[in-house]
Amino acid sequence: MLTILEPLWEPWTLEFMQRALLAACLASVVAAVVGCYVVLRGMAFLGDAIPHATFSGVAAAFLLGGSLYLGGTVAALVTALLIGLLGRRGALKHDTAVGIVFVAAFALGILLASRRSTYTVDLFAFVFGNVLAVGWGDIWLMAGVGALVLALVFLFWKELLIVSYDPTMASALGVPVERVQMGLLALVALTAVIALKAVGVVLVAALLVTPAATGQLVARSLAGMMASAVSVGLVSALAGLYVAYYADVSPSAAIVLSATALFALAFVATKLRARAAARRALPERAPAPSSRT
Amino acid sequence: MAEGEPMALEVRDLWTGYNGGPVLEGVTFAIEKGCLAGLVGPNGSGKSTLLRTILGLQMPWRGQVLVFGAPADRRRLGYMPQSEAVDWAFPITVFEVALMGRYGVLGPLRRPGRRDRDVAWRALERVGMADKARRRIQELSGGEQRRTLIARALAQEADLLLLDEPFAGLDAPVQHDLLHLFQELAAEGKTLLVATHDLTCVATHFDHAVFLNRRVVAFGPLREVLREDVLQETYQRHLLLVREEGRLYADHP
């Protein structure tokens, strides 16, 4: 029995795999929760933009020899703030504001990085992610920021819920809608920073969007959607790391594609179930009318 | 009405608009406590804008809104937005929507407690949606959606209710149930201002009406304001008036 299960345990006997699993799970859980708001408010583009924008801060910190995380966090928060301000009161369409700010921030990152002729591996770990290289320091940082994000979601649950669902009614009830929306952008920014090292700038959006979209297919409430999204995130982190270990492929890509596969399954299953329900609701086909004599 | 008791709602010389174009031009009217008042006018006459301005969602350019004699306090205003403005695909249950009515009185950081749940539950019972409390809103029919939003407004426990097109797209029996509920609420002392394009419904079931077309053409008890000149001026070419054997019939062409 043990020998059959051995391939299941084998990866986790290695310390770097244990760290990778912890990091991937932390990133998936936080991104799944925050991603629910991203999906419900139709901000998938923003979920892609903010992680990209962190790159400028990471590159600047790299040049100055500062903390890459701190640089990324500052860049993400500034980008979120700028997008929020530009899109405020319909001055610019929201996705236009996102498009302008994030491409500029990413370009700034490339500009800074190109100053050093040695485009180093370190910097590229942030672009493509290298979950196998995370250290205990990274994990503590991810856990700390992740706990902060989840605590804020818990504390401001009803504000985030009503602002996502019905902003007009939220203002009518005296909820400070603009401040909550800004706060939500900041949560996305912090989540992007957490997920950076695990999956990299390019693939953070997938952790934000895909599990949450799967949750939306199956759940009847926001809490249910989050629970489903977190499950999808955790299963894909685990499955992705198995695939990466045994097939020797990029772990971040494997994690993201596992999430995509789960989404595809849920999508097909809900379509089939809807079709079956429609068939049950139909009456038996009436016998063909007999011809009149 | 007791001597000296303030009006439930008093609007004085209210102006507002969008991008420099006025929508409301000096709107002035008042509604007594315990009234079921209809807010009627053609499309684009500013009905929704008026409700939004009373709520403070739209900034007035000039003018004043008094609710029970004081500057409008959102906590004394129950609101039901137009059904089209709501995201019906959102994963949320009927009960959770009703419970949102309590968010205003709760304020930041506090969670709904037992009393809030009771209030939300009673509001759902009131509109006949208690048996569907656990449904996801996506599964509701048009009438059920409308009743859920009304339950949320009731859960605000406000004395003045502003309802935007609660009858739109409902069939006669559902509309009748809602009217009955509104009349009951008015009899209990609540004041209701109901924006609707259904003139017939207002004419036959409401006590008061405000005729609006960017400005108030007339307001007051229906027997006083339901006159041909008022209808003509409010609706202009949007209304077909037919006189037959001394009775006046109105219809939207």
Short characterization:
By secondary structure, chain A is mainly alpha-helical.
Note down, in words, how this protein is organized.
The complex is a heterodimer of chains A (293) and B (253). Chain A is an all-alpha fold and 293 residues long. Chain A has a single domain (13-278), classed as ABC transporter involved in vitamin B12 uptake, BtuC. Chain A is built from 13 helices and no strands. Chain A has helices at residues 2-9, 15-40, 44-64, 68-86, 94-115, 121-128, 136-155, 157-165, 167-172, 177-199, 204-218, 222-247, 251-281. In chain A, α3 packs across α4 (68-86), α4 (68-86) runs antiparallel to α10 (177-199) and α12 packs across α13 (251-281). The mean pLDDT of chain A is 88. With 253 residues, chain B is of the alpha/beta class. Chain B folds into 2 domains: 1-68 and 159-253, Rossmann fold, CATH 3.40.50; 86-158, no CATH class. Chain B contains 9 helices and 12 strands. Chain B has helices spanning 47-55, 94-100, 103-106, 114-126, 142-155, 172-187, 199-205, 222-225, 228-235, and strands at 9-18, 21-31, 36-40, 62-67, 70-71, 77-80, 160-164, 191-196, 208-213, 215-221, 240-244, 247-251. A 6-stranded mixed sheet of chain B has the order 6-7-8-3-9-10, sandwiched between helices. In chain B, α6 links the parallel β7 and β8. In chain B, α2 (94-100) packs across α4, α2 (94-100) runs parallel beside α5 and α4 crosses α5 (142-155). The longest helix of chain B is centred in the C-terminal third of the chain and has 16 residues, at 172-187. Chain B is globular. The A-B interface holds A 40, 155-159, 161-162, 164-166, 168-175, 216, 219-222, 224-225 and B 55-57, 74-75, 77, 79, 81, 85-87, 90-93, 96-97, 100-101, 103-104, 106, 108-109, 111-112, 134-136, 152, 156.
